Amino acid sequence: MMTKELKINKGQWLSDVLPMIPSNVILNKTITGCGATTLEINAPRNSIIIEPNVPVIIGKKARHPFLMPVYEGTTKEDLKAYLAGEQDGYHKIITTPEGFDKKVLPAMYETSTPVYEDYFLLFDECEKAIQDVGYRGDIYLPVEDFFKFKGKAMVSATPIPPSDPRFEEQGFETLKIVPTYVYQQPLILCITNNTVAVLRKLLAKLQNETVCIFLNSTDTSLNLIQTLKLQGRSKVFCSEKSVRKLKRANFPDVSDTLGELAAINIFTSRFYSAVDIDLDIKPHVIVLSDVIRAPYSMIDPHTEVVQAIGRFRNGIAKAYHIANTSTNLQCMTQTALTHKLENEESIYMQVAGITPTNKIQEETQQQALAGMEIKRFITREGKRNYFMWDNAWEDEKVKGYYRLPETLETIYRTAPFQVATYHLKYPITDEDRLRRESVRLNSKDLWREVTKQLAELKKCESTDEASYLMEELGEEFAVMAKAFVLLGEERIAQLDYNRKRIEAALGNLEENRLLTSEKMKIAVYKRFHTGDIVEVAEVNAFMRQLITDQGIPFDGRVDKKVIGLFFEIEECKMKGNRGFRFGKQKYEL
User: Fold this and answer.
1) What span, in angstroms and rounded, lies between the C-alpha atoms of 266 and 400?
2) DSSP assignment, residue 270?
3) Are the beta carbons of 144 and 152 closer than 8 angstroms?
4) Which helix (H) or strand (E) holds 156?
5) Parallel/antiparallel/unpaired status of strands 211-214 and 46-50
6) Is the pTM of this model over 0.90?
């Protein structure tokens, strides 16, 4: 595909250098917010603009009231009425991919509208058709019709070159907007083994600022809010499905549409692209990728990170990407992936090419096809879905970025940012946190794991970070932290990490602390002395009465172990009765 370039100066809009978006181009606008969608909205022609998500449509409708928005709640009849009504200008329909296939096209057909001839189709943020098709198959729905339009284009600040041969067959070109000024955003990249600790430290530094965090995991978002105690000063913006999930988890500050921001705001992938966020202030923007806990939070620095930061139309204060890496991420080379998909596709096509001779064979064939993983890579027309192939490679490629710190750092050198990189290591890692969560159903394993982590922290408890992590473990596992401090790692191991035995030992320690108070020591050492030999019955009776007089809640048996708290004791005989011979005092008064 040929590439043409078009220069743009600082302060210019796309409309200043391009009167209309030409047909059969992939418009690489390079910079977000330069007015590409607005250019088509104002173009003197009928338009259908496909946006990746509903929040984008809501935002565009608010700015351009004449738009016909199509999303949940809009009916086919609404569209037919719009098409039949008197318009002051051209028809401008803005829709999700699902709305295009299920509402816009049927309305066009039923009103005999020559849609492919009379409308220009703009596929906005076109990389999403590749990046999201793996888990959101319906985003592909407009693609087959896209190539039928006489006037059509795709646009994004971060397009991914598609492999579908129809782009070449129809003579598509790439039109790249080239800024004449330095446009790369400064960004701090922090590669760490404990994303929670780094985020906690950064939020403490930014406590008087507005912070926007992009994190593609609802569960991890809630976990962070709880761990970092952000309730009451945070909001989550996510999909409608995730809104219901968070509300069921008793987190009410959540919405599927943009509204007033809190001090700390978390956005899921629904808000990574195309959404305009207009603020009077410049927020600090943090992209968080925790590949240990939430693999879907690893995102491409060349596309999704650019898009996330570009949401803020009035600029930002600073940009950060906090990320961990993992060699456990398995990824394939493009050659290996292609070999795998081609072989699976070959078998699929052979089975699909069988002509059944009876109903049993037909049903068996359909069952076989439905059970093949490669079926996701086949269109409804039984052809190769090139967008799914591109999606598979994008997934493998991005996984490769996050396997090693040096790989992620290298990728950022080719991304459109001015990057400063920091590497931070902590004694307790994201993997340690995940292990604590994964063994919670097994009490003994949990005690063993937490004791091990506390021991690691003890080695470096002089650092602020280790002290905080020790506090965090202490709050999350209070009894375990108490046992570690009072009993020690070795004693807990001797007790075989058994919760009941450990709690019993802690109970004995608490009793011993009360039994050896200063008043008890004074009374015992006033009554007994080194070298004394006293009948057992007399000693135990004295200690029993002393414990009662001191008001100590002791339910245990008063015997040798009690007086043994104060003296080294040796049993002996006194005129046929059992006696205690008092040795060295264990305390000094």
Assistant:
1) 26
2) G
3) no
4) strand 151-156
5) unpaired
6) no
From CA 378, how far away is CA 384, in angstroms rounded? 5
CA 234, distance to chain mean position in Å, is: 16
What is the distance between the alpha carbons of residues 555 and 573, in angstroms, rounded to a whole number?
28
Give me the residue label for tokens 């709050």.
Answer: 475
CB atoms within 10 A of CB 117: 11
Q: Which residue has 């603009």 as its token pair?
A: 49
Looking up tokens 């782009």 gives 167
Identify each DSSP E strand in 465-589 by its residue range.
Answer: 533-535, 567-574, 577-585
Spatial strand order in the sheet of 533-535: 533-535, 577-585, 567-574
Q: Which two tokens stand for residue 568?
A: 């080294």
Nearest alpha-carbon partner for 571 in 527, 520, 537: 537
3-state secondary structure string across 435-467: HHHHCCCCHHHHHHHHHHHHHHHHCCCCCHHHH
Answer for the pair 337, 393: CB distance below 8 angstroms, yes or no: yes
pLDDT in tens, 83-118: 988 767 899 999 999 999 999 999 999 999 999 999
Structure tokens at 65: 């009231």
322 and 198 in contact (C-beta within 8 Å)? yes
Average pLDDT over the chain reads: 91
Q: What pLDDT, in 10s, does the model give residues 509-557?
A: 777 788 889 999 999 999 999 999 999 999 999 999 999 999 888 766 7
Report the distance separating Cα 135 and Cα 151, nearest Å.
29
